[in-house]
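Researcher: Next entry in the queue.
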Amino acid sequence: MTQNDSSQDVQRLSIPLTPEERVLLRKLAKIEERSEGKMAQRLIREALDRAKAEGKI
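Model: Structure for this entry, 57 residues:
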């Protein structure tokens, strides 16, 4: 899943996070020079790709 968001139909998702999870996401995003949203999107895509490769989905 490496398509650019601007070239596909994207939908928003609201994800509940604990305060600690939010802080950690913010730190990781800063390290990787991404927004929190783009960092979360990348993590979700990586998890989905891994699940596909493992035959889970």
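Model: The CA atoms of residues 46 and 52 lie 10 Å apart.
Researcher: Noted, moving on.
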